[in-house]
Amino acid sequence: MPAVDALCRARYGRAPGSRALERLLARAGLHAPRMAERAAHHGGLADWRQANLASLARRAARGDSALVWAGQASLRTDTGTRRLLLAQTLRGSLAWLPLPAEQAHRISSYVQFLDRLAATWPEHRHVLLHGIDPEHPALRAWLAQRPGWRLV
Question: Model's pTM, two decimal places?
Answer without folding.
Answer: 0.70
